[in-house]
Amino acid sequence: MNAPPAARRTARLVEMIDFERAKDKIIMGAERRSIVMPEEERRNTAYHESGHAIVAKLLPKTDPVHKVTIIPRGRALGVTMQLPEGDRYSMDRERMLNTIAVLFGGRIAEEIFMHQMTTGASNDFERATSIARDMVTRYGMSDLMGPMVYAENEGEIFLGRSITKTTNVSEETMRKVDAEIRRIIDEQYATARKLIEDNRDKVEVMTKALLEWETIDAEQIEDIVCGRPPRPPKEKPSGGGGSGGNSPTSPTVAPNAPTAPAAQ
Q1: What pTM was computed for the model?
Q2: Residue 52 scores a pLDDT above 80
Q3: How far is 262 from 39, CA to CA, in rounded Å?
Q4: Which of 67, 72, 213, 221 could join 81 in a cystine, given CB atoms 3.0 to 4.6 angstroms apart?
């Protein structure tokens, strides 16, 4: 069984940073510092995560950005972590639209600053498309399609249950559904792109900070969004050596999505 962070540092006391690292491991996955990435891919990941974070900070109905890292975790090359401020039991239309825009921020930053497209946004696109489809087909959040359910209740397939799929929706209606999903996606993509283009300087500053420190927290992110130089990372915890905090390391990489989600 792996020792807790404080034990690995041979520390006498457990400090707050130890709880923070434990939380990060549970939410984002274990760090994979053994991965050494080409510098271009590392920069691409930093821009990708900065795109997510800037869009999330500038839209009204998004969860606060708690941390951004370009250290590979789990199957992701980098992660933008958003934490809700309280319990939430339902999602309203504007929040779902804002979520779609945030998911597109990574790919848009790649296009604008790196002039390329990578596979790192694949999980982002899957999630964005799923949200848009549910808005139209399940939640009645489309003015065009109205308050009607167009999706079947897809449950698990068990033995003895028919696996043939039936539908009560015409092809013409499904074409309208697809067009409405496309409209939602295009509008939120345009929203995210405008935010990033209007705040290019903030994306550049955040990317530079990520390349230098690899991980930035909510306070540093707030500095960047407010136009202030980001404060340096907090000091390492006392109690001996071991894994460092946000100090720079050799080139590693970082919502994006699976290396094979986040998300970059």
Answers
A1: 0.76
A2: yes
A3: 21
A4: 67
Q: What span, in angstroms and rounded, lies between the C-alpha atoms of 8 and 15?
A: 13
Residue 200's nearest CA partner among 124, 116, 105 is 105
Catalytic annotation, pick one of 31, 49, 110, 180: 49
CB contact at 8 A, 195 and 54: yes
Which residues are bridge partners to 258 per DSSP? 76
Active-site residue, 39 included: no
Tokens of 103: 């998911």
Whether the CB-CB separation of 199 and 58 falls below 8 Å is answered with: yes
Residue 154: predicted pLDDT? 55
Residue 31 backbone dihedrals phi, psi, to 5 degrees: -65, 145
Phi, psi of 76 (to 5 degrees): -100, 145
Section 196-211 average pLDDT? 96
Domain residue spans of the chain: 34-84+92-149+170-264
Q: What is the pLDDT of residues 140-151, one digit of tens each?
A: 999 999 999 987
